[in-house]
Fold each of these.
Amino acid sequence: MAQSTVNRKDSIDYYDMSIEQLLSMKAHGVPSELEELINSLILAASKRPLTARESPGIVTLITQEEIRNSGARDLIDVLRLVPGIDFGMDVEGVVGIGTRGLWAHEGKMLVLLDGQEMNELLFGTNQFGNHFPVDQIKKIEVVRGPGSATYGGFAEYGVINIITRTAADIDGVSLAGTYGQMQTTTGRSNFNLSAGKVKKDFEFSLGAFLGSATRSDKNYTDYAGQTYNMAGNSDLNSTLLNLGMSYKGFSVRGIMDLYQTTVRDAYDSSKVTPYPMAFNSYFLELKYSGTLGKQKKLTIVPKLNFKSQSPWQTLPGQDTTSPPYFKDVQRYTGGIMASYNLTRKINFLAGAEAYLDRSQDNIDSSFFKDGKKEVGYSNQAYYFQGLAKTRFVNFVVGARYDMHSNYGSAFVPRLGLTKKIKKFHFKILYSNSFRSPSVENINLSSSIKPELTTVLEFEAGYQITRASILTANIFDISTKSPIVYYDSAGTDNYKNFGAGGSRGIEVEYRIRSKWGYVIANYSYYSVEHKDKIADYEIPGVSSMLLAFPNHKANLNALFKAGKYVGISPSLSFMGERYGYTQLDTAGNSMCEKFKPVVLANLFITVSGFAKGLTIGVGCYDILGSKYAFIQPYKPLYGNHAPLPGPSRELLVKITYDLKAVKKRREKSEE
Amino acid sequence: MKHLGKYIVLSAVFLMTFIGKTEKAFAQDVDYKTYTLFLYNFMKYVEWPTTEGDFVIGVVGESPVKKELEQLAKNKKAKGRQIVVINVANPNDAAMCNMIYIPSSKSAELKPIYEKVKGKSVLIVAEREGLARKGASISFAIDDDDALKFDINKSTLDSQNLKIANMLMQLGILVG
């Protein structure tokens, strides 16, 4: 019997509950819907669960419910609603992520899927657009600040921790199908199957996603002024299998992620015929988590990880005008973490991990530097975290030390002070972080070093009522010697060059009650008076960087209309942006201003009327905006004109939850 | 850092404006009915050497828990004994109680109360976490997920000639 049930009963029943039921009692009584959310435990910011308001990070928690209600098509739709997060255009049709005005695509934003590092190891990137199936997600913890002290060299600017539904969450089979119709072509047709079963100590879960989508059906005009329609030239096809099993403390996780795109935009000039590009990844993790001692104060977590990837893959003959690219990379990681609860409020956590990277060039005519067909590197890392919760303030102190066989060491400490005092909470965070050079960074530049970042963050929040909370934070980011891509006589290259950073403010208001919820946020960044990297600068504009607007605001809401219907409008406003578009008649690159844009969406779900069935219909980009993904940098070679986003897209999504069928039947039999 | 100060001031002003306007707004406060439920279970699963007379619970100072305990006393008995709730204004009153509840705000009273009831069968329950290590028989604790838990000092209980049932012992954490 949960506390929410018991409290509604009279006092005699309440005091007659069994002693075991005391375990479920909350000190602050029955939480409101908002309190359940803001008091839910966050793992990503500290590797030890702490409530969102006390977690030592600026964190956004996105729930399965919010994702489903909004009708989000993919992770771009989900993450765009997070303060500070935005997207930009890289090359060859790949859309990458930025945060707080900074381009984080190459190895600066860690994406974890059930604990597996999804960033590809050759360049450190993640590719967005009908990738990472949203139907499998239980929640996403977005740490909008650095996480290197915990996670290492891909978490310099942030961590996106995607947690899929567990066997217990699914407890049966769940099917989801999505069809999207853009203005002139099919937007997407996706299918997802999730299955899960718990039998005593054994748990099994499977997520299987098969999706086919189009980036856009608008016309793309390349840097040289050539135009083609993107329908059929910007496919985003994804197959993702995610298998998890656990028995007592042992667990196994296997993920196969096959992402294939169709490329025609290429670099400066587009191609006459499109060609396929593949990003294939395989992950395997064996983990044990066990507690030691009578009072279970010590938890030991040894684990082994294997990751094999072949990103940016174009096989011989697929692109007839450019050389093929086919490199494999494997990472073998072994690690152990120990967590010791000295008291209920004092925890020490320490760990060590080591990995070996191996990469092979599979094309006969191409090589790594010095004519090698294979390269290998190793890294060892040690980290520590101390957490003390006192009546006045919570302290978090941590550090991580990495030693790499090629580029040497990186040491990143962090310090956090957090506290919730009744309705008010605050966080003061100081973090060093780093970006580790990837395999290709090392290959293309033998002298490359990790780039180092210092971030200061201050957050204050106030729970206005039991249903609403206002949170605001400011941040200051300074990056030294960033790893910058540059062109050297038509050849890719990287160097540590200059300095960069941004500062700004993010404000979010949430209200959540029986009628639904509203999440409204605003984010602002500026690079005024910050060091800037020339390739990211806008000529004549000192406060902004290419591609990312100073001002961004989002709204995500749900209004329940009766018992079965949910109406969910969502909206993203992006202020004016700048990007290079094409060459002028004199052959100079033209930097243009893009007007502010509003992406308005509406999704309506009908559920609960029949056996586990949920039907959703909606429209994304109702206003038919002219949104385009802009390249956030300006290289000498590899310029990319802004890539149009999807046109107005009508969506139908059907979800069928077989667990609900079973439960309903059981209920009717009773 | 030139504009950082400006942002801080603006943020603070923004937040303080809300704080001022919502002073009477309701937030999630401690649920003392839950604490009372735990105290009632302590009465049921702790064995006192005497089983006669009223069961006297003393609350040190003012606390909302007193009102909840008085409500409990109207409806329930402690193993057949009438429950009586009194206010413990000074440590000398403690010796007449079977159970003493020390609210967080009165944690400083633990030491003098402990000295007064040393060796006597008075269950000292402290609201503030950690006091079971400092003389209380039982002290409450709140987990990160807001679950209400308690620590038990078995040595103190033994010295008080109080026996605790295994079922209750398994729910708490032994700290002494």
Amino acid sequence: MGHETHVEVRTQAQYEYDKAHSRAHMRKQVVNFAIMIFLTFIAFAAVLADFSPTFIIPIILLLAGIQVVLQLYAFMHLEDRSTHMVGVIEFFIWSAAFIAFTFFVAFTTIIWWGNY
Amino acid sequence: MDINQKFTPQTWPKHPEQATLEGKNKLVGLWIFLASDTVLFASVFATYIALKDSGPAGMEFAARDLYELPLAFIMTMLLLTSSLTSVYAMYHMKNYNYSGVRTWMGITVLLGLGFLCLEIYEFYHYVHIGFGYTQSAFSSAFFTLVGMHGLHVVIGLVWITGLIIRNSSRGLNLYNAPKFFAASLYWHFIDVVWVFIFTVVYLMGVLG
Amino acid sequence: MSSVTQKKGFGAHVWDYLTTVDHKKIAIMYLAAGTLFFAIAGFEALLMRIQLMFPESTFISAGLFNELLTMHGTTMLFLAATPIIFAFMNAIVPLQIGARDVAFPFLNSLGFWLFFIGAVFLHLSFFLGGAPDAGWTSYASLSLYSPGHGIDFYILGLQISGAGTLISGINFIVTIITMRAPGMTFMRMPLFTWTTLVSSSLILFAFPPLTGGLFLMLVDRMFGANFFDHTMGGNTIIWEHLFWIFGHPEVYILVLPAFGLFSEIIPVFARKRLFGYSSMVFATILIGFLGFMVWAHHMFTVGLGATANAIFAVATMAIAVPTGMKVFNWILTIWGGSIKVTVPMLYALGFIPSFVAGGVTGVMQATAPLDYQLHDSYFIVAHFHYVIVGGIVTALFGSAHFYWPIMFNRALNPKLGVLTFWIFFIGFHLTFFVQHFLGLMGMPRRVFTYMGGQGWDLFNFISSIGAIMMGIGVIILVIDVLLSIKSEPVNRRDYWGDGRSLEWAIETPLPFYNFKQTPLVRGFDPYWIEKEEGNKEGMVYAEPLGEIHMPNNSILPFIMSIGTMIAAFGALYSPWGDQVQAGTATGAPAVVSLALIIGGLGLTIACMIIRSFKDDLGFHVTVAEIESIEADLANYRATGKKGGNK
């Protein structure tokens, strides 16, 4: 296990390139954050604006979905393809999301006796 | 792995959190756990949705009149911002800047604490006006779902605080880098769940 | 340093097992604990069969019968089959993928102790006022109103042991994803490793709904919440959904590793490569996926509506397709092979027709209209026992014989093995085959007695005789195991002579680090490839001999589990419990209850904090130590004496 640790000294040029790259990446993260705040704002505003619920509910669910994808891929670094076993991780996360979705469908459709 | 190995920003690996096998295991393990936790939240969420309008005959409190959106909005902002600050902490970790990690993680904890205080206030307020845990099926489902998220916040706060205290004097190394990274992933997950809570519980609750 | 050279007292041995993080020792503990609970649950089944042997029997009371049937089902599924499967996973999977240990040895130990403590807690119910009595499904409409603390034991015991199972599942997934030896790509993994991966993923996704559901029932019964109480707006069907969302995958959690075990046994004794490897992998994943989409077929008669019933019926029938693929692949592996009928192979040959019979009755029940007739009858009992005994128990018995040489460096007696097989196998069919007809004749399940003269008497009698035969078979197996302790050690690699995967390439007894050098895997069935090329070492290495890094032992997992048990007692005797307030159960004062909950959880959390504040970097085995251990082992294999080299 110990032998799997690789520490290599980067050249000055590589180091500076990485540093600049990581700074640019951080700027992108701030933009992502701004988008999330914006989406949240729209969701709250849409509800307060008093449109018909059948119109708003799909929209705010969609906004939530977009925010979650942003969190997963930007903030939680799933877009970084050099993450160890990132494909397997994605498979598990999306399986979980799919299973969660079936729960929602089941519990909103077939849980009640009387309503249908 | 030598825990006392000292690094310079130049020898510090590009992906310190996954430079060791232990680190890789830890991160894959945490992701797998988060997948499992997603399903746990999904089952409580689904239960909440199924029960959100039901209570005993003559139930006093309906979701529509209960929730206060301004409070939920402030809580959302606090948690979203804390997500960004923990991204900053990880940014500084990649640059081998420990004081940056400590500062930003500390800010994350403060924002999380703020969120928690508001949640406690909200629960206290509801109980105070008579909307208690055993009041109706709806109240049980609400407190269980949101309380479970609150419990995750508490665990996250204890975890991050513990990491800061434990590593306050020894700086970054390849042993604690994956730990910081895992804690920040967990913190983002708390935010992911909250996105659904404010949408499904509060916004859709107000819509009725 | 070497574990072979030390002479240890009894206390040191106990301490060693309490603190161990070695996957081989944890496997042995899982096997021992699983066998204990298997024996208990089997005994409960025998009591029930004796009661049902004759009409209007008064051997045991109705209440006790309910407790027995609940504990039999719960114990067999959660506390017998699961841990014995975990025993084989722990013992074999790291060897199959060429790893020195699992990804999280500490969590592996924690998983075992949580399971074990939860199981012990559940069984304490027999001595503390009565066992749970609402069936293993514990439907809320029954269990909320069950007097006494029985259901509380069920909830809390399963909550604790379920947490352990979930932790072990995560551990196996990560182990298989990240710890594979160089060259062991996903599509070169042995089938047992594949099924362990898929089954652990099912644990990952199926246990949270159970945890959630149990938690809801816990707060309902003990802290006055209203999830399932219809007078307060609750809905009892939610429990049924949550339970079966867990409960159906649970069947696949158990049966997939059994499929994997047979997929290891059959190629070895047919002496042929497994037929259709990639279709087997595909079928495993597909069964895992479909296993999640069919839970409501347990609820056809609940009244979900025709649309829901139709969707779930079709999805259920679809599972027969990948399962059928697997059956044909096994048959085609045997076909044209040079077959050796050893004890494990005998179990495999018995498994195929028995399991197919159970599967076919499953498709019958998937037909929703027919299920209205079969529901809650003995036909259901016959069906799931054909699947579980014919599929899973045969796999466990067969692989016990198969893997005993690796796990214990001893072999089980083949003559006794054949005897066990025939007595058990005939007893099994006698017991459950006639129950199909009892079901079709209208005998409901879970009844403690019946009137004579309905045409049920003879079949019930036959069924009970079969159950006694199964009991005798198990006793012979236990005798076989006890005799093996004194038998000659195996001291060789590849006990069966035709091993194909990596676990057969290592000489027993295994050193604690498994592989002195990490192997290099050059294809599917790596050991077979090396044998074909005349490699006497059994494997090629991916690295030179070097220092080995191994994890430290720890007592914390045991203490953490004890902490959860203390907290569970606090919740159990909560003064706010429905049954306590109704006066049917004893409660403790609020202070005591809260102190136990906070103290117990506090102990667990304190252990977690100690764990994270104390750096645990493991230890290194130096090259000199490895060479000394290897020399000791070689000497032991040659002379039978321990530590002669020193």
